[in-house]
Amino acid sequence: MLSRPKPGESEADLLHFQNQFLAARASPAVKIVKKADKRKGEEGSTDAEKPSLQNSKDVVMLDDFPDLLPALSPAHPKKSKIKRACVHFEDEDPEERLESHDQHITAVFSKIIERDTSAVAVTMPVPTGDPFPRTFHRSEIKSEQVKVGYGRRSIFAQKMAARKAAEKAATAPSAAEYVQIKPAALDALNPEGSAGEAPLPSIRDDKAGDFLTSQLPRLVTGEGLGSQKSVQEAQAIHTENLLKLQSMSEEEILQEQKRLLAQLDSSLVAFLKSRRGGNEGQKKELKMEQNSPEEFVESLPVAQHGVGSSLPMQDSGLEEPVRKEENMKGEITDDLPVKPKKEWIHMDNVEFEKLEWMKDLPSPRQKKTKKGMQARFSLKGELIPADADLPTYLGLHHHGEEAERAGYSLQELFHLSRSQVIQQRTLALQVLGRIVQKARAGEFSSSLKGSVLRLLLDAGFLFLLRFSLDDAVHNVMAASVGALRALLVSLDDEKYLDWTFSWYQGMAAFPFVPSNEEEEEEEEEELNGTEKSQDKRVKDENKPDPDVARYDVVKGLLKTRIQHRLRYILEVVRPVPTVVLDILHILTHIARHSSEACSQLLDCPRLIETIVREFLPTQWDPQVAEPGRLLTSLHGVACAGAMKFIRVLACGGRNATARLLNKFEMKDRLSRFVAEDPLDLLLPREEAIRLSTEAFRLWAVAAGYGQACDLYRDLYPVLVRILQSLPGLLTTCRGKSPMIELFVQRATAVVTLLTNVTQTAGYTAELQAKLSSNSSEDGEQIPPPPVAWNQVSGLQPFLETSLKKFLQEISQTETWQTLQPLTTTYVNYLGVYYSACSQQPSVNPIDCLEELERLTSEVLQPLLSQPALHSMWDLLRPCSALCNPLSCSPAPESVCSIASLSCTGGKPPLSLVGSKSPFPFLTALLFLINSITHIHKGLTSKYSSVLGFRGLKDYLHQSWQTGPPSVTPSSAWILRHEYHLQYFVLALAWRTAGTCPDYAQHASLHHCVAMALLSRLLPGSEHLAYEVLLDLAFNPEFLPEGKAGGPEAADFSDILHLGTGAKLAQPGSAAASFSKATRGALLRESYQNLPFIRSCYLSHFVHLQPTLMRSQASYQGQNYLIQSMLLPEVKGPILPSDWPFFPLISLYNKVTNAETRGTVLNSLPLDLVNTVTWNLQWVLLLETWRAKTLQSIPTAAKLARLMCVFLTGSDLFLEAPIHRYTAALLSVYCQPKALDSLNLDAPLPGLASFHDLYISLLEQFEGVSFGDPLFGVFVLLPLQKRFSVDLRLSVFGEHTSILRALGVPLQQFPVPLQRYTFPPEDNLNLLRLYFRTLVTGALRHTWCPVLYVVAVAHVNSFIFSQDSTTQESDAARKSMLRKTWLLVDETLKKHLLYYRLLNAESPLGFDLYEQLPPVRLKYLQMVTQKEYKENAHC
Question: How distant is the alpha carbon of residue 1093 from its chain centre?
């Protein structure tokens, strides 16, 4: 039982009782019922509608009193708005409801506002004879007295207002009385009359009303005082204000006016203006009632200091905006086509600013400003010129800014895309999609400043489209899909990728990963590829979606799970065919991104099932094929775009292909669309041919992994029938059929399929032998494919026959241009066929060689003699991407976060992928020739004439000398095909070099091409790089200088002083006991060690072994080992540009890492000494005979790499061979041209800071140099005057101890001293360090002659300089001169004072004056005598 509250208990106790009551859930002592709602009748009192106890109201019940009030008149029940707002929930806490409705006493008191009654006069009521106050009757006010204009008021209110007006008029003084008050006020203001010293401000004579206005208060009227003297008090305040104005100058008044206007609110200023305007009527009335206002004005004194003139200015300043506003309203009214009239209802207050849209728009014009104008676009996405005058009915003027200009800006379209109106959102997305499409085509590059795509992406366009995809409205969804397709997909890119699908290695393609992805940190470089990818994936998952999309749009979209939304649209929404095709294009682009993207698409629930079921059915409505029929839905109809998406998805990996073939039943679809002729498919003819083509391409991709080869046995008759029909394409081509291009593409897909099946069958016997051997050493056993060699060998006669017929048309330009893709695949097939045939144990080798001889004599030899083929060699240079870097440059609107091939708009015919390009056919021809010469070496001499074609030699000579274009997605895929042709030319040259005696004339050219190709090959071509290193780069046959007098020529050059290598000597070093070798002898020894050099480099590229194995599987046709058709991600070439120094850099890194871990390597093994020696020998060979191949490496970078010789170990540089070759290379880098190109201030590739490297070199010199002159030259080289002063400050400031060991003789120093002494040093700190080391004896001529000469020259130039300079520098040079004059060391004093010029022949390195010139002597006497006089005065 709960107790009742008792007196004295606090509010906390009451709250405690309340909590106890609510917790006990006891029934209340008062019964609560719901009172019936009188507005709802009796229905509101039913028990069914009674709310719960918590939602009821407290109602007091009275006995014998009805709940419902009687209805006074029949009326409709009113609906309560308040009741509907009181919504309660069942789980709502009653305590919280009570607390929310509780009004504490503080809340009540806070709303009380006390009225100020201090100035209110308390008056007693007027005594009357009536017992009660007299009441007011409406009848006392006549209707005539009620003024019209009170608005919508009741009669009672109108009569009350008339009564108050009558009372006020009765109590107010008359105009005459009011005028009589003024002289009293004036007397109070100026008791001495008009002759007073403080006269009032003068008033303009032309307006007497201004006088009245200035003498009567405008704002302070005294009405709120409530006393009888309110007018006098207001007048006193006004008089005080006038006195204040009288005491201020005009400038002070204006300044105060500006301050007040700046502080006051704009609404308050408008109120003041309205008060002044409202008093105009009163001024006129008073002016009319006054008898003689002119006399009163004349009696006022005139202002003496111009204060009065400022008041009218102030008034006019307040009135000027009002006048302007009235004038503007008048102009607007004049321009309106419909002018408002006073008779119109509710039009008495015209809002002119809202009527401006009715005015005629001004004509657009080009603004003559340096700033660009805002771009505006039409509804078709076209850019509208700034001065274009378009009619308004086009709907392009519905915007606020720049209303006269037609079109919409990007900002306005963004704003419109978030509209609540569906049509506006749809229209905005459609226009943005068209703008993006035209921007990617480059239509705005010459008209707009900046990139439209980059601007849109930075503004969040990608996520605007992603959010719009989630819209429930189908039109908005379709528009966003179209805009997203325009942003991501380039149909021209897809066209050229399909075009190159049947080229040599054309199925493999680089992933569409942007090239600007965030680089891994240095500490992560030691991780392997798997750990890197996993760590990168975790980082991307933790990043926000916008951050990921900023550098990779596709990855950002996948992070938003876009594939799930697209699946929903396809499966549930079932949009129109256009949207379906756009979605398939988007999915295809995502699948090209990476293998991870393919996996995410495959793992998306029901995505692949929906596409296969709906767009690749085995049967569909036959009415689809009816001509002229418009498809309303693609669902349930076979679609070529869906087959292409599956094909691109299969390129993501062999596991993905296996899932597609088996889990998603793509094998059945392949059989369905391959077995039936495309003309018999119940589809439009073009769509049927495309569908059949994509089916064959998908099968070719699967066969490239060694999969789906069992279908070959089942569909063998179909394939044979197709091969038999291929020669008929020649007749179709001559007939100029419009479908010929589609038929040729289908035929190339079929031949590409047979090529991959033949490659797979070529390794069946080998895999069968491995499987039958059951060797325990092998790991996982690979089962052989279900196709044998005898099942594919019968196809070769069909294809060779077709090839002979097509080659006869090579002279017919149009026919050949149409059939060239198919002819290229024929030649590729023959190359693969003969390579595999030679490895079959069931094939007689002699028969194979005879067949190759027959093919050479009957087909290839006549082909090589064709004039049309000669012209194709001549087209290599015009179509080359290396010779024409702009042909593969990124598009103007390409963005770094979206990978693109920049093919929008098509490639020109004379380009590598153009219609007239000879690269695909010549690459296939060279591939076939290399396959033949690899099998039958006796035929090599018959193909040596290929290397002598003039067009090929011109192309090779131009390609290796031209710098390669930057590696981007738009250039990598093109350059890869060009590098294939160059490799096959080099491979043919390698085979020809050993058999043809006259090959030496091409050797140097081909070696230069090989060296350039090594530094350009892209990831995925590791096999080619390995073959070039193995067979070409270090082959003595490609260095004919070694046999043709190259070493002797180098010695002769040194004798003629064309080089400086003979000047270096190493006195006092460990190499002094060895006889000095000439550069020719070193070159001869290096040439003889080429086999060891090759083995050294091959061993240091062992880190590329995993990628090399994958690349070999692709190029050697080992389909059972290929994991993916996607090549590795391109971030640059396989080998760095400075790969000739790679062994030395690798050794330096190993030693540095060992020392970092605390391990000191006191001695180095012999193989490491040999490694460094071979590295230096190879660099010396290249610098002497192939110097142009190393031009891409800066001279500073070469010197930095050579410094690693001294930084590796303690005494490595003292080894005799290393010392000799390092000195020889130093003489090369100290030649005048090399020194001129030396730039140590620019950033160097692979080096974070040259300053840090130089500090390490100084520390190493201090520790282990033993005064070696060669080491000293490397220390002195960076101290030239034109390089950073920080390097010289490091030597003379922190490492002065090395000055004792830098004993490089002047006669053996290879760098002219003028590079150290000119121009004169201007760094005051360094000059002080020069002087200090000389004076203290730390720098002496016997210890460090080079720097001694440099320091003396700079100090002498500084102390005798009389140029105008700062006070600090002037004091410093005079102080140095005085100290030099007082030196005790007469030799140093003589050198510093009498230094004249540098002289390399002099033992000192410079000449001295016999006596100082008069100018210097006079200056010396002036400085020294001044000091003497100052000391004497002291």
Answer: 44
